[in-house]
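Researcher: Quick one. two chains, 318 residues in total.
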Amino acid sequence: MGNGIPIINEPVEGRIVTVIADDLEIRGAIRFKTSVMLKGIFEGEIFSEGLLVVGPTAKVTATINTETLISHGVIMGDVIAERQVVLRNTSTHTGDIKTPFIMIESGAVFNGTCVMERGDSNFTAGTAIVEQPELPEEFPPFEERQEPLPEVRPEQKKRQPREKVRPEEHASAPETAAINEAKEEEPKPGELL
Amino acid sequence: MIPEKKASSSEYDEKDITTVIADDLEIRGTIKFKTSVMLKGIFDGEIFSEGLLVIGPTAKVTATISTKTLISHGEVSGNVTATEQVTLKNTSLHNGDISTPNIIIENGAVFNGSCSMRAKDTTVK
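Model:
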């Protein structure tokens, strides 16, 4: 299935940057870039450039803008996800979804409208998908977030002259580059220690 | 590459399907059946089923579908009411509304339309 479908790679809870426990109730707006797991009650708006995980105990009433949404809980509200929406078997979703890739597991409840645009007008069902390897560039698999470990080393060596960041690579895979950058910065405190 | 989830209710064996309509057959009109049908060709019209409808990867179906179970690998335009389950496989493209108590959409499937499910948790706050 190498046809550009983002691979769902749900991080374990310990790898999620912020975990909001189930006794916390939030009203308002949250904004984040990496990953957040909600386990409590949330009402308001969510703006994310990363991963939002709605835990099985969560009740979220919100307008959600995110890159990836993985839901195990109860969501009411409209969702726009730039990369992917995953509704796990315990999830209940009431509201509209707009995303290029969706996966709904058996057992999940979804009431609403789903709109999928992949910016690829010649996309058709069946065999045509398999013949289109172009998609991966547009939607790099989510897995790349965790993959870079072997990649980081050559990247670091090449990156020492920081100004020459190979513009072509940035153009072709800006997201990957950004992720690698983030990954690179993480190990640094460890080195200092 | 992607580990495929094998949900038993969404799997079938083509040999077990009573009628297989091959991909060179084009049908316009209404079909009614009680056991299982696999469509691989072009269908335009209405489908009333009390059993399993499988839409093959080569099929193009423009229809109002009323069935117990729908498994789609192909292209469907039209509204679907399934009393048991709808499964949109990774190669499927669905334009139209779906009404069913249980739905599975595989990673890669395209679904444009509304989904309404009433079976479970209707009392969710």
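Confidence is low (pLDDT under 50) at residues 1-8, 121-125 of chain B.
Researcher: Thanks, that's what I needed.
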